[in-house]
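Work through what follows:
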Amino acid sequence: MTQSHTRLLILLIALLTISAAFAEPADVEIAAEKPSKSKREKIPPSDGYYKGREIAVTMHFTGADWLTRESRDREEDCTTMLAALGVKPGQTVCDMGCGNGFYSIKLAEMVGKDGKVLAVDIQPQMLSLLKLRAKAAKIKNIKPLLGTFVDPKLPDGAVDLILLVDVYHEFSHPEQMLAAMRKSLKPGGRLALVEFREEDPAVPIKPLHKMSKQQILKEIPPNGFKLVEQFDKLPWQHLMFFERDDATAKDAAEKLEKSQK
């Protein structure tokens, strides 16, 4: 075998290895195929800012290992955050910007076999990593959804809780995404926003990837949501709960009262 043939063989083996790593496990439902050119959405341009805030660039899938780092639970107290969500068995929960499924896997266990996790990401490579992790954990109630910059592809009126962990600040088109998420919530459904605290300089995260409560309230309520609860016991992050602003005042008051007990 010549030297050039040897190089070609090595290259082919490397390409086959990469393809296998991102293959789609057969026992996890695939929710979206790549649309044809004729069906692709016309995405409006974004100027990179929203209500005075610079929008951060989406985290690339090559950095996915950071999401499952050993120190994450200790630094962010993920266990306490999950407990504060109030997830119940049988619910339909969305992990928005799911990445490699760090939270999707945990949420799937919380909703149980009668529940469902809709795991949304705009990078198919992230969804491939999620599916590999779900297969390894033998979890089958996660439905991956390949979203776009303006549409998470969620079903209308079907979601009990949408969890956004350190992802909202990366939305290039916040208004379109908020409108789509609002439409997907059931009556009384919630949006749980988790963002690193801009107000705290001790939080070791780049400023572009932090948000203040003031900025959050400047952006979310004007898009058809109302703040119904806040959880301030996480070490690095805000946790704020929003409902559609057409939910009854009585329902919101009752939920707030229960959360404070």
User: Anything to note?
Assistant: The chain has eight helices and ten strands. The longest helix spans residues 3-21. The chain has one domain: 62-259.
